[in-house]
Amino acid sequence: MSVEATPVQPGSVVLRLDNQAARALVRRHYLRWWETLPWLAAAAFYFAFPAYLGFGTALLITILFALSLDLALGYAGIVTLGHAAFFGAGAYTVGLLAFHGIWTEPITSLLLAAIAAAAIGLASGLVLLRTQGLTLLMLTLCTMALLQEAANMAHNYTGGFDGLPSLDIAPLFGKFEFNPLYPDTQYLYTLAILLLCFTFIRALVYSPFGQSLTGIRENLLRMHAIGAPVRRRLVVCYTISAAIAGIAGGLWAQTNAYVNLSALDLDRAATVLIILILGGYGRLYGAFIGAVAYLALEHFLARVYPTAWQLGLGLLLVIVALYTRNGILGLGEVLWRRYRRAAK
Amino acid sequence: MIAGIDVASILLGGLAAGTVLFIVSVGLSVTMGLMGFVNLAHGAFAMFGGYVIVLAMNRAQFGFAAALAFGLVATAALSVVLEQFLYRRLYRAGELDQVLLTIGLIFIFMATLTILVGPQSQPLQLPPELGGQLNLGFVQYRTYSLFLIAVGFLIVCGIWLAFERTRIGAQIRATVDNRRMAEALGINVDRLFTITFAFGSGMAGLGGGLGAEFLGLDPQYALKYLVYFLIVVSVGGLGSVVGVYYASLLLGVLDFVLKLFLPKGGTIFIYALTILILLWRPQGLFGRKTT
After folding, report:
1. With 50 as the cut, is the pLDDT of residue B291 above it?
2. Distance (Å) from the C-alpha of residue B144 to the closest C-alpha of chain A?
3. What is the pLDDT of residue A1?
4. Alpha helices, DSSP H only, in chain A?
5. Is residue A105 packed enough to be buried (19+ CB in 10 Å), middle (13-18) or exposed (0-12)?
6. Are B111 and A266 an interchain contact pair (Cβ–Cβ within 8 Å)?
7. Full-model pTM
8. Are A149 and A158 in contact (CB under 8 A)?
């Protein structure tokens, strides 16, 4: 099969490639069969491990929080170390409303949490997103620290360091109670919210808006050159991301029935960043993989050997940073491609 | 009561704390300015150096000066090993991979020190000649704080001279300004970075030991003060030694004053001020504007 024996007609090759590329582009956002797996697993978890539903709820909330960060950091390339600011804003919105007996209905509280977090995201985004790199990192971090100090100082309303304990959350739909001992309701409620938010994020990242975010991440100058409203897109993305982080924070407050300063901690912001990079950023399922890997390890190792957990986590992070280009999912992709090539 | 406290002693306390901050952070500023490498593990080097110094004195009966020199060299040596085997591979990688690597290193340092030395805080035994009070004429103050301020001043002068008057200093300045151009002119940026990295980490180790009085020394050190190191570096301006010096002194004095007058929630002003400064000058007070 030499090249001379089968002369290639230039036009036909281009056409065929074109079709393939075009088909891939058109079908890019189609649902694939494996995309149902996380949800099937989440449903199976409910029936298989009734004793671990509290852990499961925390896991789902972390996934949602990591997804919100993925939108800002993974898709739009906004490197932030202060995403817990929005998580905390949402958590404190729910907490303050419930603690002072103003509003306890869960779903509308979540909406209010999202609005409060979005407002902070919009206000800070308008100012901060002019900067890049270390400056942006520091500005987001300081904004979060500022909020935490403010929450600490407003002791009369927020309980300061002790936080707001035993929040009274109204039953869901007036029917299903949030029982701390049997967190069935919390788990299913969180799962439903996560599914809703995920559907929204998935639609968003495949939309022209999401495409332009990726463009901004990949080549800022070119996006400016083709006349894309870069600043506005970034601010909108940051605000949406903040709103979703606020929902995650609100869920955290509702399912735990307390809020404290840890919601606004650097620890929380750094952990979610680690989880996202560990799983793989800029892709829809990195948050899932990262959260499962991190929390499962932490849950079972940290209790028994806290120091060994710290050492193991450190080694894992170093290995992931050195040997994979984009987290566990990136590693999986490389291995999969090798396997495919070997199979051929 | 507050009115009775001498303004001079408040200032001196703040300056001493700021000096420690400067000695630890100066290396971070220069290496970040040179390579754009986000080295969050810099505080871990300071912690490592501090441990080496304190343990050398407490367990191996080193003298103060000998322990400081030993800590500096040990930290520099360790940093070169890590640089050659780990950091080097991620120079061209994105910020996020660098963040992941260096956070991982922080955890490894923290866990290793907890296992080897224990979770408790390590005390620094000052030599007797630095332990007392010194009469300056207008005010009497702790000798050790004054010693720190003097050491810090000598260090900033030394580094400034090295930057302005030596060949390697000129190469560093050129690389901070425009790395590609510097490479095109034949400056071996990789080797330059190794040298600067070792020096900066050594200084951090020295600072960790010298500052154990102020900042304490336990396995949480690397994370606890990371924000302060980063604030100083970003406010001072990447790659600017003098900028980091001023920013450190400013932060040290401000922190001291706020802790005195507003023991609760005083740090809110530090964060607010940092935000304002960075919004006003995103490149830091003394940083060069990047294109």
Report:
1. no
2. 32
3. 40
4. 10-26, 37-48, 53-69, 84-99, 106-128, 133-153, 155-158, 184-206, 208-218, 220-225, 230-256, 266-279, 286-297, 306-323, 327-343
5. middle
6. no
7. 0.86
8. no
Nearest C-alpha neighbor of B156 from the set B23, B254, B30, B13: B23
User: Is residue B15 a part of any domain in this protein?
Assistant: yes
Task: Classify residue B51: in a domain, yes or no.
Answer: yes
Q: Which of residues 97-116 of B touch A (CB under 8 A)?
A: 97-101, 103-112, 114-115
Q: Taking the alpha carbons of A320, A324, A325, A329 in that order, is the dihedral positive or negative? A: negative
CATH of the domain at B267: 1.10.3470
Residue of B nearest to A312 (CA): B108
Alpha-carbon dihedral B5, B8, B12, B14, rounded to 10 degrees? 60
**Contact flag A317-B271 (C-beta cutoff 8 Å):** no
- Degrees (nearest 5) of the Cα angle A134, A136, A139? 110
Nearest-neighbour CA in chain A from B152: distance (Å):
25
* Closest CB to A314 among B111, B274, B275: B111
Domains present along chain A, CATH in parentheses: 37-343 (1.10.3470)
Those residues of chain A that have pLDDT short of 70 are 1-18
Q: In terms of Cα–Cα distance, which of B179, B172, B205, B185 is closest to B82?
A: B205
- Residue (of B115, B110, B57, B109) closest to B78 by Cα position: B109
| Burial zone of B7 (CB within 10 Å; 0-12 exposed, 13-18 middle, 19+ buried) | exposed
Q: Which amino acid is at A267?
A: D
According to the model, what pLDDT value does residue A195 have?
A: 92
Mean pLDDT of chain B: 86
pLDDT, tens digit, for every residue of B8-50? 778 888 898 899 999 999 988 888 877 778 888 999 999 999 9
Could you list the residue range(s) of the whole structural domain that residue B238 is in?
A: 7-280
Q: In this predicted structure, what is the pLDDT of residue A233?
A: 92
Q: Element (H or E) spanning B133, and its range?
A: strand B133-135
Q: Give the gap in angstroms from C-alpha A138 to the nearest C-alpha of chain B.
A: 7
- Per the structure, the count of domains in chain B is 1
Pairwise CB contact (< 8 Å): B97 & A277: yes
Cβ atoms of A186 and A53 closer than 8 Å: yes
Per the listing, tokens 């789902």 go with: A60
